[in-house]
Amino acid sequence: MKTGKIALITGATAGFGEACAARFAKEGYDLIITGRRAERLAELKQQLQEQYAVQVTTLAFDVRSREACTTALGSLSAEWQAVDVLVNNAGLALDLSTIDEGNPDDWDTMLDTNVKGLLYVSRIVMPWMKARKKGHIVNIGSTAAKTVYAKGNVYCASKAAVDALSQGMRIDLLPYNIKVTAVHPGAAETEFSLVRFKGDADRAKDVYKGFTPLSGEDVADVVYYCCALPAHVCINDLVVTPTAQANAYYIHR
Questions:
Q1: Catalytic site residue 155?
Q2: Would you say which domain of life the source belongs to (predicted)?
């Protein structure tokens, strides 16, 4: 059943973003899905429209570019700007290396995507929510925001920034009846490790050996739960891990 609500989800071509798109569509939300892979967005649009009879609009752009964010989101009609839920999901980790041996290009990509991309998109969408005096922003963080681990340095810093920005958003948007939730997933088997290890499938698979990790659908269920609570209830900060994981460092295999 259609809700008349709109969810905007960044990084929707895979992993948490794709799962969130499916979850919100299942609940009757119309969707704005963004990502860099236009073909994958088109496929997902067709799939969700056929399966759930919702309206889906796609925006193919890279959140690292402020100009691209402004152009793409600025192209939305007033009807589509009535965003009820923004899921800032676009993000990635690259490599595992000590900070003295890290690749500055990887640093730039992580910080530009995980921190600046989140800011660029939010800066455009927040005034739309303020004008309507309602909305919910969900920022996808990580257990890496809470516990720094060896060779995680810049990735951990980027997710700690997401944590801090979520707290800042919650405070600054309080007068406008806008909810802000940070969801921090632990080990989840998506494309995350494959991207981190730059296509090394064997190395990516080893990350999840010996325990049952989260799935994208698990995280999407948590995100939707946070957004489905009564209007007067807001989960500000939520850490979700597999049962076998205590934090970013401790996993029982």
A1: yes
A2: Bacteria
Q: Whole-angstrom Cα distance, residue 130 to residue 122? A: 12
Residue type for 19, please? A
Distance of alpha carbon 156 from alpha carbon 136, whole angstroms: 25
Q: Which residues contact 225 (CB under 8 A, 6 or more apart)?
A: none
| pLDDT for res 1 | 66
As a whole number of angstroms, the distance between CA 51 and CA 27 comes to 12
Q: 29, 52, 155, 224: which one is catalytic?
A: 155
All structural domains of the chain: 6-240 (3.40.50.720)
pLDDT bucket at 203, cuts 50 / 70 / 90: confident
- Provide the token pair at 42: 């088109």
Q: What is the full DSSP assignment across 69-97?
A: HHHHHHTS-TTTT--SEEEE---------
Counting every residue written for the chain, the total comes to 253
CA distance 68 to 251: 39
